[in-house]
């Protein structure tokens, strides 16, 4: 039940983070800005997380891990309530910042918390169970938010998300026992941060994270536009395809979660190479066939569904003595990738060059696969 509660918190975090993606058109129309400006709500969110996460994780290092999780989920509740009453774009930006400040801290502690619940020999499995909330966010959270936004308005959809986040906080408080911070690794404060940032064993993982996430979000941030332009679906049709996309992502999480501990390199290559293959299919065959484009959009979710668990498991394998700070640095890399991807995609969208964003995503997948193939960071501990 504790793992389920943490998974529910992951669900609320991911759904809330990506609400501008699901409600892109509604937010743009009501706030009187362009769709690329709404995309900047994703970029700005990621930038704040990237800048704040490492010092905030160091600052909260002595906190009970359950308390840390509760505070960060409470920030999601407050953020969504503020967004729901935002009279204009400026207040919407502030609302997003409230959640962004706690976002990185939450993701820095949730995987180590799960690993403590199941034990060090099942790091990948524990991460996969908790990260099921991520996949459910894409399977249920985003399609449902998109549908609610179209039927009852985007503000009601955001209020509903705040309520779900509040329930997740209650579940954590009831089911997760207090988790005092374990004795830290040698080095404190700035010394510990410096060691985590300069750890060479983590550099390949962080590099792959930045590159593959940049490619993914260059397209995913504007997935509703992709569906409209390539698959020729809008409104309810978009929600249905997002639902299929989320189901494929959950399938990817299950498949990768089963094999990530025993075959880390193979799973990482499948994630990176799979992203490249799906983007190439969308780029080459998508414009000629809406059906092929729809298949590519759904298949794309399989590797992306395993992305976070494969990368997070690699971090926890490489940094057993300081998982929180190492995870914080990884979160920085992930958020830099989100910010770059959302920005790159927005630039191409403004220039009516969406295929260029798809090409960038394919290239990022290929480059990431090369790094994975040549790096020892993606081998199991027992392997040479």
Q: Return Rg in Å.
A: 19 Å
Number of domains: 1
Helical amount among residues, as a percent range?
A: over 70%
Q: What is the number of helices?
A: 17
Structural class: mainly alpha
CATH fold title: Growth Hormone, Chain: A
> Considering the protein shown, what is the CATH homologous superfamily?
MFS general substrate transporter like domains
Task: State the separation between the terminal residues, measured CA to CA.
Answer: 37 Å
Strand content: under 5%
**Shape type:** globular
> Which CATH C-level class is it?
Mainly Alpha
Number of strands: 0
Question: Mean of the pLDDT scores?
Answer: 85
CATH architecture tag:
Up-down Bundle
Main sheet attributes: strand count, strand direction, barrel closure:
none
Order of helices and strands: HHHHHHHHHHHHHHHHH
Query: Low-confidence parts lasting 5 or more residues at pLDDT below 50?
Result: none
InterPro entries: MFS (IPR011701), MFS_dom (IPR020846), MFS_Efflux_Transporters (IPR050189), MFS_trans_sf (IPR036259)
Pfam families: MFS_1
Organism: Saccharothrix texasensis
Transmembrane segments: 40-61, 68-87, 93-114, 126-148, 154-176, 203-227, 239-256, 268-285, 291-316, 328-348, 354-372
């Amino acid at each position: 039940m504790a793992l389920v509660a943490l998974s529910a918190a992951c669900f609320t975090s991911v759904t809330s983070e990506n609400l501008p993606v699901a409600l892109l058109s509604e937010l743009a129309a009501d706030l009187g800005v362009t769709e690329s400006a709404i995309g900047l709500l994703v970029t700005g969110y990621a930038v704040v997380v990237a800048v704040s996460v490492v010092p905030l994780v160091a600052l909260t290092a002595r906190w009970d891990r359950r308390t840390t999780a509760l505070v960060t989920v409470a920030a999601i509740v407050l953020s969504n309530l503020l967004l729901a009453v935002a009279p204009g774009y400026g207040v919407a930006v502030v609302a997003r910042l409230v959640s962004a400040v706690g976002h990185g801290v939450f993701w820095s502690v949730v995987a180590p918390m799960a690993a403590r619940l199941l034990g060090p020999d099942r790091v990948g499995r524990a991460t996969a169970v908790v990260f099921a909330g991520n996949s459910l966010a894409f399977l249920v959270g985003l399609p449902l938010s998109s549908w609610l936004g179209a039927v009852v308005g985007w503000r009601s959809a955001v209020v509903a998300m705040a309520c779900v986040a509040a329930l997740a906080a209650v579940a954590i408080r009831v089911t997760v026992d207090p988790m005092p911070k374990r004795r830290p690794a040698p080095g404190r404060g700035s010394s510990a941060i410096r060691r985590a940032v300069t750890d060479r064993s983590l550099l390949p993982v962080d590099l792959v994270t930045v590159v593959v996430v940049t490619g993914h979000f260059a397209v995913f941030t504007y997935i509703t536009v992709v569906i409209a332009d390539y698959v020729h679906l809008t409104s309810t049709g978009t929600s249905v395809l997002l639902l299929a996309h989320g189901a494929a992502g959950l399938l990817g999480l299950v498949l990768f979660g089963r094999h990530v501990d025993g075959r880390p390199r193979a799973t990482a290559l499948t994630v990176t190479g799979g992203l490249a293959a799906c983007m190439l299919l969308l780029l080459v065959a998508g414009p000629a066939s809406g059906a092929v484009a729809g298949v590519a959009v759904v298949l794309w979710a399989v590797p992306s569904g395993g992305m976070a668990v494969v990368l997070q498991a690699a971090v926890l394998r490489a940094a057993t003595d300081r998982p929180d700070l190492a995870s914080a640095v990884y979160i920085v890399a992930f958020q830099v990738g989100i910010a770059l991807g959302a920005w790159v995609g927005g630039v191409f969208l403004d220039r009516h060059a969406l295929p260029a964003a798809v090409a960038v995503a394919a290239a990022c997948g290929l480059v990431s696969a090369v790094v994975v193939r040549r790096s020892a960071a993606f081998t199991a501990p027992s392997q040479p």
